[in-house]
Specification:
Layout: H1 9-23, H2 52-64, H3 71-76, E1 84-88, H4 100-118, E2 122-126, E3 128-129, H5 133-146, H6 156-170, H7 173-180, E4 191-192, H8 196-211, E5 215-225, E6 230-232, E7 237-251, E8 254-258, E9 269-272, E10 286-288, E11 295-300, E12 312-315, H9 321-330, H10 356-369, E13 373-386, E14 394-403, H11 406-417, E15 422-424, H12 427-437, E16 442-443, E17 445-446, E18 456-459, E19 470-472, E20 480-483, E21 486-490, E22 494-495, H13 497-501, H14 504-508, E23 522-528, H15 532-547, E24 552-558, E25 561-562, H16 579-586, H17 588-596, E26 605-606, H18 609-638, H19 640-643, H20 676-683, H21 692-713, H22 717-740, H23 746-760, H24 765-775, H25 795-817, E27 829-831, H26 835-839, H27 841-848, E28 853-855, E29 863-864, E30 872-874, H28 878-883, H29 885-907, H30 909-914, H31 917-943
Parallel strand pairs: 1-2, 3-4, 9-11, 15-24, 23-24, 25-26, 27-28
Antiparallel strand pairs: 5-6, 5-14, 7-8, 7-13, 9-12, 10-11, 14-16, 17-22, 18-19, 18-21, 20-21, 27-30, 29-30
Helix pairs in contact: 1-24, 4-17, 11-12, 11-15, 16-17, 17-18, 18-22, 18-23, 18-24, 21-22, 21-23, 21-25, 23-24, 29-31
The protein binds one RNA strand through strand 8, strand 12, strand 13, helix 12 and strand 26.
Length: about 950
RNA sequence: GGGCUUUUAGCUCAGUUGGCUAGAGCGCAGCAUUCACAUUGCUGAGGUCACAGGUUCAAGCCCUGUAAAGCCCACCA
C-alpha cells in the first residue's frame, strides 16, 4: 500500500513546493522579454500562430463568451497577450509576517493563477515585497530610541542605509510564508519597492509630470504628526469622533466660538456670515485680539455658519484647513504659532515653548481671569489622528511637493466611464469615479528617510543666477550637485509610498514604451477593498498617464477577514488568527479551502477554524478516495491481460517534460521508476461506461467542471469550492465509489479521479499534487496538466440512475423510521414487475444493506414504499407495520398538503394561461405523481 | 449632509435573468461499526427569508417605505 491511511500535509507540502520551484513550473511559458528568434525584426511573442494550440483553445472560449470589442481589444486580437494571464501580488511588507488578509489574497490569486495555468495560459504571478515606508520607519525609529539615539543624530543618507541593513536582516520570513501557502508565483521576478527599476520608472514619471507642469511646490496646510514629524496624505488620516469643548471668547463685542483657544495667537481675522443681521455693522471694523496687542479685522465669509455656536468664528489660517481657505480668499496673513514638534512659537514670552496642551490650559486660565471666557459647551467633533501612533494630528503649514491631479483624474475617469475595467463588486466602479471627481491635489512629500528620494534640487541662494530655483535631477545619491555652474542641494524629503506603488503593474511587468509587454495590462488586480482609493484609484491614474492604457482589465476586491463572531480582528481584542498556525495545524490546502468558503467580493466576512477543519476533512476524504481507487485499479490492471483494456491514441495524452519518481510505502520518493509495463497500460487506457452509475458520475463531473469554469470567470470562489466539495464527497465517494465496489471499471475510475484532481488543484494544490505523484499514472506534475475536457456518457442512463438514488434513499429512510434499531439487515426488499430494480439487484442490495431482494411471490405483503413509480415492499411483519401506522398517516398528510398546493396552482386560470408551458406541464406531472403516491399509501394503510 | 453595504436555520454563509415544495458547512439528535476514510457512513430535527405596503399567474429575488447593524466621503469655529 503506497498511501498512508490518513493525509498528513506536513509530510509532503514543502517537498512538493520545492519540486515545483526546481522544475520552474511557476514561470510564464511565453517569454516576458521580447524575443526575435526568427530574425524578422518582429517580436515573436506578438506573431499570430506562434502558439497555435493554445490559441485554438482560447478562441473556442472567447467565441462562447463573445462581447463587444473596443479598439484596444481588437489590437490585442491574435497576439501573445491573448494567451497570457498576468496578476501581481499586492506586495507584503518585506520584513514582516503574513497576516490573515495575506492568506486570503494568496488563496484568491493563486487559485486564479493555477486555474488559468491549467487552462493553458502562460501565467505570470508576480510576487512583490514592500519597503513599507512609514511602517518600517516607525519600527526602526523605536529601536533607535531604545538604544538611546534619535534620528537627528544622523544624516538622511546614513539613516537610509541603516534602515536598509535593518530590513535585510529581518527579511525572508514573508517569502517562506508565501511558499507555505502554495503561491505559485514567479520568484525570479520578485519586485521590491525600492528596486532600481522601480525608482527609475518613478523618476521618469515624475520628470514627465514636472515637464507637463503637473508638479508644484506649495505652502499648504498638511496633516502633520508631531511625534513622527512627518506629513500625511489625506487618505492616511484616521478621523475619530471625540468629545471636546466649544469655548466662547469675547473679542470685544463679538463672541467667537472655538475648540482650540491656544491658536488665538495665530488669528488674523474674525469671520461672520454676510447675511447675518447680528454682525452686519461690524464687517470691516477691527476687534482687539485678547492676550495680545493686536487688532484684527472682522470679515464677511460664507464659511461662518450663523446657526453654529455664536455665528462668529476666529480665523487662524496657519492652523486650520477651513481657515486656510478663508485666509486665501481674503488675503490674510498666516502666522504659525505651533512648531513642528508641537511647541508654541511666535507667541508672547509667557507662552513660548509650551506644548499645545499646556498652552491651552494657560490661555483658558488667563482668559477666564480677564473675563473674556464667556461660556463653554461640550460637543462631539471628529479629530484627525495619526493612524500609527494615535497622536492628534496638527494641521501644519509646510512647503511640500504637490501633484495637480486634475488631468490625471480626468483621464482615469474617461477610461473608467468607457468600461475598460470591470469591478467585482461592480458598484465599486462608481465609488472610484466619484472619488476621482472630488480628488484634491496630492501631497507627495514625506519627511521620513526610508523611501524613494524626491529627485529635486534647490538652488543655493547666495549665488544669484538666472537659473530656476528648483531643478529635476536623477542623481539623488548626491546631496549636492552642480549644473550650469550653479550649485543645488537635494530636497531631503521622500515620496509618498503610494506615488511609487501606483506604478506597480507597470514596473512588475517591466512595461516600457519601447518594449510593451503582452502581460500589460494585467488580467486582474486583486486586493483589499480598503485600499481602493489609496492604491487602486492611483494605479489607474498612473497607468493611464504613463502607458495610455488602464493597468488592469478587472479588479477583484476582497473584504476584511473577521473573526468567527463577525468582529474585526485586533491585538487588543486578542482574536487575531495567524494563518501560519492554521497551515501548520491543518495544512495549506485546508487553510485555502477554509478561507475561500463563504466569501464573496467586497464583503467583510467571518472566518473560523471550523471552516479550515472542513477543508482538512475534504483533503483527507480525497486521500482515501484515491487510496480506494488505486487499490481497485491496481487489482484490475493486474488482470488486464485477460480483460484486454483498450488503449488511447497519442493525441489523448497530456505529455509533460517534467517527471518525478513516485513515493515508496513510507511516502518517500524513490529514485527509480516503477514498473514501466504496468504504467504504460494504465496511462493509455480508455474507459467505457458500463452501467448507470458510471454514466451518472460522468454527467455530474461534467456539470461540476462547467460550473467551476463559470464561477472562475465570475470570481465566485466560494461557489466553486462548494461545488467541488459536493461533487467529490456526496456524489463521487458516497454514491459512485460505493457502486464501484460492485461494478469495477478501472479505466473509468482512473479517468474520473484524475479529472477531479485537476479541477480541485487550483484550490488545493498540495494534496492533489501529492496524490497525483503517488498514483503515478500520468507523467509530470498535475500543476502543468491540461484542464480536462468533458467526459463521455449516455444521458439517458445517467438520468435513470437518479431513480436508483431515490429508491435507495426511500428504503434507508423507511428502515430508520421503523420501530427498533439496526433495521437495515432485518428485512428483505420485494419488487413487483420492476426491471430497473431487477437489473440492479446487487447495487441496491449493497447500498441499502438489506439482506435480500426478491421478486414478489403472490399477493403484496409487508410495507409498501412511498415511491410513485416503483412497486416495492419491505418484508416487514404485520405487527411492525401496525406500529408504523402513525408515521404512515403523517406521510399521507404531508403529501396531501403538497398536492393541495399544486392543485391550487392549477385552479388559477391565470397560471395556466400565463405561466410558461413547461412549468404548467411540470405541475400537471407532479400532481399525477402525488396522486399516485397517496393512492398507494392509502392502500397500504387499509391493509393494516 | 452625500453615498455604499448588510439583514435567509443555533452559528457562518449560498440562493446568478422572478418559477422555491428555500440550500450548504459547522453545530444538534438518533442509528451504524472487523468496510478507503471516526478527519467515517446513514437518517433526521431545525426557517412567517428584518418589517409594512405594492407590482405579478407566481416575490427570498423587482418597486416604495420603515427599522436595525456596519462601512466610506465631506463637515464639525
Amino acid at each position: 500500500m503506497k498511501f498512508a491511511s490518513s493525509y498528513e500535509p506536513n509530510q509532503y507540502e514543502s517537498d512538493i513546493y520545492a519540486a515545483w520551484e526546481a522544475a520552474g513550473v511557476f514561470k510564464p511559458t511565453i517569454p516576458t522579454i521580447p524575443v526575435d528568434d526568427n530574425g524578422d525584426g518582429v517580436d515573436d511573442r506578438f506573431e499570430a500562430g506562434a502558439f497555435e494550440t493554445v490559441l485554438r483553445r482560447r478562441e473556442q472560449e472567447e467565441r462562447s463568451a463573445a462581447h463587444d470589442d473596443g479598439p484596444a481589444q481588437a489590437r490585442r486580437e491574435s497576439t501573445a497577450s491573448n494567451l497570457c494571464y498576468s496578476i501581481v501580488m499586492p506586495p507584503p511588507n518585506a520584513n514582516g509576517n503574513l497576516h490573515i488578509g495575506h492568506g486570503l489574497t494568496v488563496a484568491l490569486e493563486d487559485s486564479l493563477t493555477r486555474y488559468y495555468r491549467l487552462k493553458g495560459a502562460s501565467t505570470w504571478y508576480i510576487p512583490g515585497a514592500d519597503h513599507a515606508g512609514f511602517e518600517t520607519w516607525v519600527v526602526y525609529e523605536k529601536n533607535l530610541e531604545k538604544s538611546g539615539h534619535t534620528r537627528f543624530e544622523y544624516s538622511r543618507d546614513e539613516l537610509y542605509s541603516r534602515v536598509w541593513d535593518f530590513v535585510q536582516m529581518q527579511r525572508g520570513n514573508m517569502e517562506l510564508q508565501l511558499r507555505a501557502l502554495g503561491a505559485s508565483c514567479s520568484w525570479d521576478d520578485l519586485t521590491f519597492t525600492l528596486d532600481e527599476n522601480v525608482i527609475d520608472r518613478v523618476y521618469t514619471t515624475f520628470e514627465k509630470m514636472w515637464n507637463d507642469g503637473m508638479i508644484y511646490r506649495g505652502e499648504k496646510l498638511v496633516n502633520y504628526c508631531p511625534k513622527h514629524q512627518t506629513a500625511f496624505a489625506d487618505i492616511e488620516v484616521d478621523h475619530k469622533d471625540e468629545k471636546g469643548t466649544l469655548w466662547e471668547l469675547a473679542y470685544d463685542d463679538i463672541i467667537v466660538s472655538t475648540t482650540r483657544p491656544e491658536t488665538l495667537f495665530g488669528d488674523t481675522a474674525v469671520a461672520v456670515n454676510p447675511e447675518d443681521e447680528r454682525y452686519k455693522d461690524m464687517i470691516g471694523k477691527t476687534v482687539h485680539l485678547p492676550l495680545t496687542d493686536r487688532e484684527i479685522p472682522v470679515i464677511a465669509d460664507e464659511h461662518a455658519d450663523p446657526e453654529y455656536g455664536t455665528g462668529a468664528v476666529k480665523i487662524t489660517p496657519a492652523h486650520d484647513f477651513d481657515d486656510f481657505e478663508v485666509g486665501n480668499r481674503h488675503n490674510l496673513e498666516r502666522i504659525q504659532v505651533i512648531s513642528e514638534d508641537g511647541h508654541m512659537i511666535n507667541v508672547p514670552e509667557k507662552y513660548l515653548g509650551l506644548t499645545t496642551e499646556e498652552c491651552r490650559k494657560q490661555v483658558l486660565k488667563d482668559l477666564k481671569d480677564q473675563g473674556i471666557l464667556k461660556g463653554e459647551k461640550k460637543i462631539v467633533h471628529s479629530v484627525a489622528h495619526c493612524y500609527k501612533c494615535d497622536t492628534v494630528l496638527e494641521p501644519m503649514l509646510k512647503e511640500q511637493w504637490f501633484v495637480d491631479v486634475e488631468k490625471l483624474a480626468k483621464m482615469a475617469i474617461e477610461h473608467l466611464e468607457n468600461d475598460e475595467i470591470k469591478f467585482y463588486p461592480d458598484n465599486k466602479k462608481r465609488v472610484v469615479i466619484n472619488y476621482l471627481k472630488n480628488l484634491k491635489d496630492w501631497n507627495i512629500s514625506r519627511q521620513i528617510p526610508w523611501g524613494i528620494a524626491i529627485p529635486m534640487f534647490k538652488k543655493v541662494t547666495e549665488e544669484a543666477t538666472d537659473e530656476p530655483d528648483w531643478i529635476f535631477d536623477r542623481r539623488t545619491n548626491l546631496t549636492e550637485i552642480e549644473k550650469s555652474g550653479t550649485r543645488y542641494v537635494r530636497d531631503e524629503d521622500t515620496f509618498d509610498t503610494w506615488f511609487s506603488s501606483s506604478h506597480w503593474p507597470i514596473v512588475c511587468t517591466d512595461w516600457s514604451e519601447e518594449n510593451p509587454t503582452p502581460y500589460y495590462p494585467l488580467n486582474v488586480m486583486e486586493t483589499a477593498g480598503d485600499i481602493l482609493f489609496a492604491w487602486v484609484a492611483r494605479m489607474i491614474m498612473m497607468g493611464v498617464y504613463v502607458t495610455g492604457e488602464v493597468p488592469f482589465k478587472e479588479v477583484y476586491l476582497h473584504g476584511l477577514v473577521l473573526d468567527e463572531h463577525g468582529q474585526k480582528m485586533s491585538k487588543s481584542k486578542g482574536n487575531v488568527i495567524n494563518p501560519m498556525d492554521l497551515v501548520e495545524k491543518y495544512g495549506s490546502d485546508a487553510f485555502r479551502l477554509g478561507i475561500l468558503r463563504g466569501r464573496s467580493a467586497g464583503m467583510n466576512q467571518a472566518f473560523s477554524e471550523n471552516s479550515v477543519i472542513a477543508g482538512r476533512n475534504l483533503c483527507n476524504k480525497l486521500w482515501n478516495i484515491s487510496r480506494l481507487v488505486q487499490s481497485i485499479v491496481d487489482e484490475e490492471f493486474e488482470n488486464s491481460a485477460t480483460r484486454g483494456l483498450p488503449e488511447a491514441t497519442a493525441e489523448d495524452e497530456g505529455a509533460s517534460p517534467v517527471t518525478l519518481a513516485p513515493w515508496d510505502a513510507n511516502c518517500r520518493r524513490q529514485t527509480g521508476a516503477s514498473d514501466p509495463s504496468r504504467e504504460s497500460t494504465i496511462s493509455n487506457s480508455l474507459y467505457t461506461t458500463d452501467n448507470m452509475g458510471e454514466d451518472w458520475i460522468c454527467r455530474e463531473i461534467n456539470e461540476c467542471t462547467k460550473q467551476i469554469e463559470q464561477d472562475m470567470k465570475d470570481y465566485r470562489f466560494a461557489e466553486a469550492v462548494e461545488t467541488l466539495y459536493q461533487t467529490i464527497w456526496d456524489k463521487y465517494a458516497d454514491w459512485f465509489l460505493e457502486s464501484q465496489k460492485i461494478y469495477r471499471n478501472a479505466a473509468l475510475l482512473k479517468a474520473t479521479l484524475e479529472h477531479l484532481l485537476i479541477i480541485l488543484h487550483p484550490f488545493a494544490p498540495f494534496v492533489t499534487e501529492t496524490i497525483w505523484q503517488n498514483l503515478s499514472w500520468t507523467e509530470g506534475f498535475i500543476i502543468t496538466q491540461k484542464w480536462p475536457s468533458r467526459l463521455n456518457y449516455d444521458p439517458i442512463t445517467a438520468e435513470q440512475f437518479e431513480s436508483i438514488l431515490t429508491i435507495v434513499s426511500e428504503v434507508r429512510g423507511t428502515l430508520q423510521a421503523l420501530p427498533g434499531t439496526n433495521n437495515a439487515n432485518k428485512y428483505a426488499l420485494m419488487y413487483d414487475n420492476d426491471s430497473l430494480v431487477e437489473d440492479n439487484l446487487l447495487l441496491i442490495k449493497a447500498l441499502t444493506k438489506v439482506p435480500d431482494i426478491n421478486a414478489l411471490d403472490g399477493k403484496p405483503r409487508g410495507l409498501r414504499l412511498a415511491l410513485a413509480n416503483h412497486e416495492l415492499y419491505l418484508d416487514v411483519p404485520e405487527q411492525v407495520v401496525a406500529e408504523y401506522k402513525d408515521a404512515l398517516t403523517e406521510k399521507i398528510l404531508s403529501v396531501g398538503r403538497e398536492l393541495d398546493a399544486l392543485n391550487a396552482r392549477m385552479m388559477n386560470p391565470n397560471y395556466v394561461e400565463k405561466a410558461p408551458e413547461h412549468l404548467v406541464k411540470e405541475t400537471k406531472d407532479q400532481i399525477k405523481e402525488k396522486e399516485a403516491l397517496i393512492d398507494r399509501l392509502k392502500t397500504q394503510q387499509e391493509l393494516i
